[in-house]
Design a protein that fits this description.
Radius of gyration: 23 Å
Strand order of the largest sheet: 2-27-28-29-30
CATH superfamily: Quinoprotein alcohol dehydrogenase-like superfamily
CATH topology: Methanol Dehydrogenase, Chain A
Strand content: 25-35%
Structural class: mainly beta
Shape: globular
Number of strands: 33
């Protein structure tokens, strides 16, 4: 019998957390394990309906005609919230009152070659003498004093480094909006690249020394001569091809010193005739030694991608119980709705994966890989086929048929709108999520999927919420930037709490 459960490895950042770490939200998505989980339980299924707005914060810079977004999952450390605004400023805000303490302007507005950077979060690190915020923004990595917001001048070039340094040409396009992971004194950085052939930078994974800013190691996601996977590309592809990058974020197993990196497609996304081969390490889950950057194992989930099937989310660390034995595992979700499950240490699939024949392209000059891997278990959470007989007009009978299918699921919550953001689960038995264009935030019963509470936001919350304790109350906060899926933009953080 196989049972998958969340791992108890709720790993802390290096020295940034206190003994009562559960009171803070001190890592992106809750920590380096990207669990989206909090041990807080003051807000429960019994009292969540009493949540009210505790405070709101606006930067004061936003204008109604601006088309901006906020996708930031903020940090909360020692009663202070750290997040970014719609105009890409980093602000420190009292987490109990919403009062601003300081702000930092990276001066990158309008400078990125990829348009507005969608900044998603921060990291925190300490060397035992001072605590630093790590901001990867556009093509720059900044180190700031946690208490003052001032640049740490001993880091890199007066507090910052340009992580395009070392690329073949300055014209290559990349930035970083999703935070990396902190392991000891290392910051392991993901990047976002262009999706066009010729301008896309390679999606190398790099680790920087957080004391000095020095580059410590590099893993080439487009292999160079003598490296594993070089033969899966045309000769010297590393000189001209880009992409195969990690934009979704990575996950750290601190105990084992392993970092799990999900990558996207090579550029150009929708044409592969000029890059024949499997194209390692695009569309792969890569396990790296966090200390050295050496490959431990990998699994390519899409062979020679020409459909933009990037791996879209950080992996999850889980434990699989099999025949009475616990196996440390890592799971990777995909755009197709499949879930791949691997032994964390060896990369062995824990459920059978079939290499199935795939149709060839009929586009002249195009190249497709003859097979694609599909896992037998777990079952995909989205439909995998669409036939003519599946099409229907919107009638009461058709609606009843859809509702009947939903009723067969263990959990479902038909909000009627797509999601563009992540959830937070708590020990209070709740799952909180905004992310919908109807500008609502909702609380679901974690066991039944029933909506227990919802509240209208100033704008759509296309970001993952955070939960923390400040002023002796558990709070829930979400960035409300809107600006996507046809919704209005704004520049506001909203925090909720139970009445005092």
């Amino acid at each position: 019998m196989n049972v998958i459960r969340l791992s108890a490895l709720l790993l802390s950042l290096h020295g940034c957390l206190r003994a009562d770490a559960g009171r803070d939200w001190a890592g992106y998505l809750g920590g380096e394990d990207r669990s989206n989980f909090s041990t807080l339980a003051e807000i429960t299924t019994e009292n969540v309906h009493r949540l009210n707005v505790a405070w709101t914060y606006r930067s004061g810079e936003f204008k109604p005609d601006m088309r901006k977004q906020i996708q930031c999952n903020p940090l909360v450390i020692d009663g202070v919230l750290y997040g970014t605004t719609a105009l890409q400023k980093l602000v420190a805000v009292d987490a109990a009152t919403g009062r601003e303490r300081w702000r930092f302007d990276p001066h990158t507005e309008g400078r990125s070659k990829m348009g507005d950077v969608r900044h998603r979060g921060l990291a925190c690190w300490t060397n035992g003498r001072d605590r630093r915020l790590i901001l990867a923004h556009d093509r720059y990595l900044y180190a700031l004093n946690l208490e003052t917001g001032k640049l740490v001048r001993a880091f890199g070039d007066q507090g910052m480094i340009d992580f395009k340094d070392g690329l073949a040409t300055d014209e290559m396009v990349l930035n970083s909006g999703t935070p990396g992971v902190v392991f000891g004194n290392l910051y392991i950085l993901p990047t976002r690249t262009s999706e066009s052939h010729g301008s896309a930078a390679p999606g190398h994974i790099r680790a920087f020394d957080l004391e000095t800013g020095r580059l410590v190691w590099t893993f080439h996601t487009i292999p160079q001569p003598g490296e594993y996977g070089y033969e899966t590309w045309p000769p010297d592809a590393w000189k001209s091809f880009g992409g195969a990058n990690c934009w979704a974020g990575m996950t750290l197993d601190k105990e084992r010193g392993l970092v799990f990196v999900p990558t996207g497609s090579a550029a150009y996304d929708f044409w592969g005739g000029n890059r024949r081969g499997e194209n390692l390490f695009s569309n792969s889950l890569i396990c790296l030694d966090a200390r050295t950057g050496k490959r431990v194992w990998h699994y390519q989930i899409v062979r020679h991608d020409i459909w933009d099937r990037d791996l879209p989310a950080p992996p999850n660390l889980v434990t699989v119980r099999r025949d009475g034995r616990d196996i440390p595992a890592v799971t990777q979700t995909t755009k197709s709705g499949h879930v791949f499950v691997f032994n964390r240490e060896t990369g062995e699939p824990l459920f059978p994966i079939d290499e199935r024949p795939a149709p060839a392209s009929d586009i002249p000059g195009e190249f497709t890989w003859p097979t694609q891997p599909l896992p037998r278990l777990p079952a995909p959470f989205s439909r995998q086929t669409l036939a003519y007989d599946d099409l229907t007009t919107l009638t009461p009978e058709a609606h009843r048929a859809v509702v009947d299918r939903f009723a067969r699921l263990r959990q479902h919550a038909p909000t009627g709108t797509p999601n563009y953001g992540g959830p937070v689960a708590t020990a209070g038995g709740l799952v909180f999520i905004a992310s919908t264009p109807d500008e609502m935030i909702r609380a679901f019963d974690r066991k039944t999927g029933r909506i227990l509470w919802q509240s209208k936001l100033p704008a759509a919350g296309y970001a993952t919420p955070a939960t923390y304790v400040a002023g002796d109350r558990q709070h829930l906060v979400v960035a409300c930037g809107g600006g996507k899926l046809g919704t209005k933009s704004d520049d506001v953080y909203v925090a909720f709490a139970l009445p005092q």
